[in-house]
Design goal:
single chain, about 300 residues, alpha/beta, seven-stranded mixed β-sheet, six-stranded antiparallel β-sheet, 9 helices
Length: about 300
């Protein structure tokens, strides 16, 4: 089947690469324009653009996918299906009605509609997640679903490890949907939740919260966004890895906040304590907590 693929993120890039190896190789890939990235703010292409160029697939990076010229470009290749995966921009009429639009969404819809379903499932402590193939409609991930597959969430899963498995499932389900044309079923009204985009407040490890919640936050934001903990002088310390500390071995008089205790770097919380294992000071490299304490230590306060 001739396909057109709309996507932007690393997740979408992994899916389009697997799709390109099938009989449904896209004849056109559309992604977002290059944007400034990193400390140097140099222009960088989205991951999907990099894959499309490497595979020799025709590529477009319009400012708006809803422009008439874009609709005409899609229509010109006469696709049997237009696939959307982590595109990151709203798709409107008439494009919604002009083609069969299949959306690849990494959650078990209707749970975790929205921008950050993998992160939110990890943060919430869900036992499982998965992938849904749905028909794109005007609502936010509310269209009918034709295929789903469940994936357990392991106790030590990070965004990186879980998303890698979901990428494989996504490509497999997508190809199955293209080949078998399964029946679409409307989503139930019960069980709807929304996965809001990750913001600065989501990254902050607030000691007023429970340590178990914060341990999940660290895993949910690793390695792509990153959590952070505030030191006594206001410095934001990046946190790459953390684990719940055994309460019996800790000094009960430790006050909430980031503390050094017997050579360990701890975040003492309202309930429980998180041991910070791999951290990154501002402008520095990631290092184990012992190296950070030996080289810098904590500020007074």
């Amino acid at each position: 089947m001739r396909t057109v693929f709309l996507g932007t993120s690393e997740f979408a890039a992994a899916v389009v690469e697997r799709l390109a190896a099938s009989e449904h190789r896209p004849v056109l890939v559309l992604t977002r324009p290059d944007r400034p990235k990193g400390r140097g703010r140099k222009l960088a292409s989205p991951p999907v653009a990099e894959v499309a160029r490497r595979l020799g697939i025709e590529l477009g990076q319009p400012e708006s996918v809803n422009d008439e010229a874009v609709s005409a470009r899609i229509a010109a290749v006469q696709p049997g299906a237009v696939i959307v995966c982590a595109f990151g921009a709203l798709i409107k009429e008439p494009l919604l009605s002009e083609h069969e639009l299949l959306n690849v969404h990494p959650s078990l819809l209707p749970r975790w509609r929205g921008a950050a379903p993998i992160e939110r499932a990890l943060m919430a402590g869900d036992a499982q997640t998965g992938v849904s193939i749905m028909r794109l409609t005007a609502g936010l991930d509310s269209g009918p679903v034709c295929l789903t597959e469940v994936e357990p969430i392991e106790a030590q899963d990070t965004f990186g490890s879980l998303s890698a498995r979901l990428q494989q499932i996504s490509a497999r389900l997508l190809i199955r949907a293209l080949e078998q044309s399964p029946v679409f079923v409307e989503q139930p009204d019960e069980g709807v939740t929304y996965a809001e985009k990750i913001g600065p407040e989501d990254r902050q490890l607030d000691p007023a919260r429970d340590a178990r919640e914060l341990e999940r936050v660290v895993r949910a934001l690793q390695p792509h966004v990153g959590a952070r903990a505030q030191l006594a002088d206001g410095t934001q310390l990046g946190v790459h890895s953390a684990a719940l500390a055994e309460p019996g071995a800790l000094d009960p008089s430790l006050q909430p906040g980031v503390r050094e205790h017997e050579g360990r770097l701890l975040l003492v919380c309202r309930t429980g304590t998180l041991e910070l294992l791999v951290v990154q000071p501002p402008g520095g490299r990631a290092m184990d907590a012992g190296a950070f304490l030996r080289g810098r230590g904590l500020p007074d306060g």
